[in-house]
Amino acid sequence: MTGTFHHRQELLRREAEVQLRDRPLPSWQKRVLHRFAAERDNGWYPLLNQFAPHTPRQRPDLVLVGRMGVLVVLLRETEPDWEDSRAAFVWAAELLAGASIGSGMLSESVLRTVVVHPIEHTGRKGRSADHLAITEDELDRLFKRGERILTSDEALALAKHLDSRTFDLTPIMWNSQRIPRQRGGVPEVLQEPVAPSARRPFRDWRYFLDDAQLGAVRRSYSGPAQISGPAGTGKTTLALHRLAYLARRGDGKLLCTSPLPWIPARAAARFGRMAPELAGQIEFTSLHAWARDLLAGRGRAAEVDEREVRRAFDAVWSRDVVLHGLRNSREYWRDEIDRVIKGRGISSFDAYRTVSRKGRGGQLPSDFRSHAWRFYCEYERELSERGVFDHNDVLKRALAELERRPLPRQYTGVVVDEAQELTLIGLRLAHAISGAGPDQLLLVGDGQQQALAGGWRLAEAGISLHGRGEALRHDYRNRAMLLERASQVEAINRFDEGPSLPLSAALPVRGGGQVVEWHGRDQERALLCALLALDDDSSAAVLTETESAAEHWLRVLRDAGVAARELASWDGRDTTDTLVGTYLHAKGSEFRSVFLPVEPTPPPDTAEDRETHQRRRLTAMTRAQDLLWLAHPTTP
Ligand SMILES: Nc1ncnc2c1ncn2[C@@H]1O[C@H](COP(=O)(O)OP(=O)(O)OP(=O)(O)O)[C@@H](O)[C@H]1O
């Protein structure tokens, strides 16, 4: 078998020798081409640049399409400039744009740039941000390593697509007209976008996007833009692809940030699985960490002493008699200060008196604002007496610092994920970091998943979308049954900026799924049994409303011998441990199975607490891909 295989490869090599005999290529380049041509029976289709060996500097000499993707090959005696290798990549990527294969549109992640040097090359080899550099004797590496992204039919269809898009590339050793269609039909490469359907197999997000996603990845936005869409519709996926797209078209830095501190690390883990070579060009950091680093870099105090801040608040709270009477919730008044007064940068009672408090409760007496303002002033006094500042102060100071002295070098682009959780000050800071120029700011979010108090409008931060908003619709995460169940949660969207869709309007890409509505007495036993019955490779999470319930379940799981870890500190890397954490910390994550036990907390007693609870519950439910387990304990 092996002998026959090598014999066949030798025949192909010789055939290639004959075909390329009259091309004025240096002999080492011919050897490389012969080697590539010999891989045809393994489903590799080479396309040679018709100008080779006088290929323009910023073009590939060869493009090779196979099941492992598309190789953009530069045959060079010396190391090319990074601009040349990137430009060759972008040239091939533009030819590929719009190629729809089977179940989706191909993303640029199927392309890799390879620089092949003659054997005597002594310069740098190996992987860099822009390409892999090898010598001709190492070509086997290209064929033997890597995962299969495409079927053979798809590879052929893609090779034909490239052939049809340019006269610069010519097939070697294969001919689009002559290779017969294989039985079962070669998928057509369509120019028309095709919406994904449940009938198609589920594909890898790194290589396949839908037309709405790909359109937004490649679109040129003349100013700030927004991506919205219900849970699981691929907003973060799109944002990561866009970061890669922008990174490949320039050498500037990009920033991927979020008001929720754990989101950027999880996004970075995903990006690393998609385009590790570009990771150095993108900063993944929370907005607070970014602000702190800016201040520290400019010699300004920036560390928040959380414990002392809590003490300052508690001191005022313990003295208060009025606010307790209006609403006896420490969290509510903490939010009023953090999210409404300081979070909006309000610095006078007059401004506070008239500010809109959308979603913050209408039943409070009209003079509550003067009490809340006094409370806030006392809190500020406590902070200054203790010589500390809180997270809002860090954002405010960073904003003032940027106004005083802008960044020496602007980011090429800034993506803010979970943008609905920003405070107004946070939004202003993000805008100040990015600037308002073309492609500089992309806000990604979903108002139906808003978990923290908000209530601002983009215009208050000087941002205007002017129609630069897209809403995604196809849910790639939640199987149909789960989506249907989660859509029953009445989660009100208070973040009504740009286009948006409720979860009930999302279209599931994958059918089926399992929703278990457990009724019974012994919730712990039932949950453990269901968890232990999962397949070994099933990622799972137990999600709770409160921190204390999360701690409880972590203990229960560990006591039962289940490998479990805290969700709050999880960075998104693959793990076989069951993750346990709050609904809030579940943002930016997903699991095959999600368990939602019930906890002994009194139900929310105000309309806005109920709203927040519903939005958080919707977020928690939509973390599940295949199985959603919901507890309904019966009292003894
Ligand atoms: N075009 C696609 N093809 C295949 N899988 C996709 C596609 N787009 C997204 N996915 C997958 O769908 C899941 C949800 O994507 P993502 O996390 O980007 O959604 P999201 O809209 O940001 O979700 P949420 O708002 O709930 O956090 C992920 O597993 C992602 O890999």
TrEMBL record:
Superkingdom of the source species: Bacteria
InterPro entries the record matches: DExx_box_DNA_helicase_dom_sf, DNA_helicase_UvrD/REP, P-loop_NTPase, UvrD-like_ATP-bd
Pfam families, per the entry: AAA_19
GO MF entries: 3'-5' DNA helicase activity; ATP binding; DNA binding; hydrolase activity
Residues reported to bind ATP: G229, P230, A231, G232, T233, G234, K235, T236
Keyword 4Fe-4S among record annotations: no
Domain UvrD-like helicase ATP-binding: residue ranges: 208-490
Entry keyword set: ATP-binding, Helicase, Hydrolase, Nucleotide-binding
Keyword ATP-binding on entry: yes
Gene3D superfamilies, per database record: 1.10.10.160, P-loop containing nucleotide triphosphate hydrolases
Protein name: Part of AAA domain-containing protein
GO term, biological process aspect, one: recombinational repair
GO cellular component: cytosol
